[in-house]
Design goal:
Protein name (chains A, B): PadR family transcriptional regulator
Strand order of the largest sheet of chain A: 1-2
CATH architecture of the largest domain in chain A: Orthogonal Bundle
Largest interface: A-B, 76 and 76 residues
Largest sheet of chain A: 2 strands, antiparallel
CATH superfamily of the largest domain in chain A: Winged helix-like DNA-binding domain superfamily/Winged helix DNA-binding domain
Number of strands of chain A: 2
InterPro entries (chains A, B): Tscrpt_reg_PadR_C, Tscrpt_reg_PadR_N, WH-like_DNA-bd_sf, WH_DNA-bd_sf
Number of domains of chain A: 2
Oligomer: homodimer
Number of helices of chain A: 7
Strand content of chain A: 5-15%
Shape of chain A: elongated
DNA sequence: GTCAAATATATGCATCCGCATATATATGCG
DNA sequence: CGCATATATATGCGGATGCATATATTTGAC
C-alpha cells in the first residue's frame, strides 16, 4: 500500500486536486508506480477520512468545482514514519518471466517472438526514460533523487537488453 | 492474474497436491512470483471449478488425505492460449523507488542508510540466485529457459549494484 | 452543427491477495 | 511428557486495485 504514501509525498510538495494528482502520478512516478483514476480518488478520500490529508472545495466558474487536497501534520508525520520504516524486500512479480518459464510448450519461433516482443518493449521503455531524464539543472538532493529513479529504470533496461542477447544466443544452441 | 497460469504450467509438468505445489512455487518460481498458501489452495479450487484442473483424492494412511491435481485438456489449452497472448508490458511497481523519490525529506545519513539497506538486500538476492543457478546439465530448451529466468535476476541485480554505486556518488556531490 | 476531448469527482462490481485461524495426525526433540 | 514441526486442506476477513459507468459543463475540431 505505497500509493497512500506516494500521494502523501506528492501532496507534501504541492497541494492539488484528485484530477491533477492523477496526471502528476502518471508523469512523475509513472515509471515505478501506476494508479487508476478511481483508485486515486478513493485513496485520497481515505487519507482525508484518516486525517492525513485535508480537503478544501474551490468553487470554479466555467469549470467543475475541485477539491484541493493538502497533507496535514499527521499526514507528514505518517510520510516520515513510512520513509524511515524497514524496506519490504520481497521480489517483484514478473509476468514476463512467468511466460518464459513455461515457454517451451511453444514452438521455437514463438519463443523467439516472445523475446523479440520483450526487446521491443524494453527498448521503448528505455527511450521513454532517456527522453525525460534530462540532467538536473541543480544539484539539489531532491532533484538528484528523482533523476536517480529514472536512472534506475535506464540501468535495468540496458541490463535486460544484454540479457536478451545472451538468452537468445543460448536458445539457439539448445536442443528442442 | 498469472498465478492461475503459473499453477497450470507446473501441473502440466507434474500433477501434485496443493501442499506440494506451494513448496514447488517457492522453490522454482519464487524468484519472480510468490503466493500465500491460502491463495494457492483457492486458485487451485478455482481451476477445478472452471474445469481447467482435475482433482483426485488420494487416501493415505499415517498422513492426511491429499488432493492430487492435474491439468485437464481445456487447462492445457488455456495455458497455451495464455503463452501466446500479447504481453501486458506495464511497468512493475517498485516500493523502493517510491521511498527514494521522496527521501529528501530525511536527513542525508538516513538517505545513505536507505541505499545501504537496499544494497544488502540486492547482494543477498544475488547470492541466493547464484547459489541455485547451476549451469544446466542438458541443453534442453526447458532447462535453458528456466536457467534464463535466474540469469535475468542475476543480470538485474548486478546492474542495480552498479546503479547504487553511481547514485551514492551523485548524492555525495549534491547540495542538501 | 455535432461529436469528441478536457475538466472534475464518485460509486458499483469483481478479483487478487495476504494474514490469521481451524482441524487432524504423526514424528521427533529435549 | 510436552511442545514443535511436518503433512494436508480450508474459511473468514479485509485491503488494494482495475474496469465500467454516471454526471455536468466548456472548448475545440471537422
Amino acid at each position: 500500500m505505497s500509493l497512500r504514501h506516494a500521494i502523501l509525498g506528492i501532496l507534501s510538495i504541492q497541494p492539488m486536486s484528485g484530477y491533477e494528482l492523477k496526471k502528476v502520478i502518471d508523469e512523475s512516478v509513472g515509471h515505478f508506480w501506476t494508479a487508476d483514476q478511481s483508485q486515486v480518488y478513493r485513496t485520497l478520500a481515505g487519507l482525508v477520512a484518516d486525517g492525513l490529508a485535508a480537503r478544501r472545495t474551490v468553487v470554479q466558474e466555467e469549470r467543475p468545482n475541485l477539491h484541493l487536497h493538502s497533507a496535514t501534520g499527521p499526514g507528514l508525520a505518517e510520510l516520515d514514519r513510512w520513509l524511515a520504516s524497514p524496506l519490504p524486500s520481497q521480489p517483484t512479480r514478473e509476468p514476463f518471466l512467468a511466460r518464459l518459464f513455461f515457454a517451451d510448450r511453444m514452438p521455437p519461433e514463438e519463443i523467439t517472438e516472445l523475446l523479440d516482443t520483450r526487446r521491443r518493449d524494453v527498448r521503448a521503455q528505455l527511450a521513454a526514460l532517456e527522453a525525460i531524464a534530462v540532467p538536473a539543472e541543480s544539484a539539489e538532493t531532491g532533484q538528484v533523487l528523482r533523476l536517480a529513479t529514472l536512472a534506475y529504470g535506464i540501468a535495468h533496461a540496458k541490463a535486460e537488453l544484454d540479457w536478451l542477447d545472451d538468452t537468445r544466443r543460448r536458445l539457439e544452441r539448445s536442443t528442442p
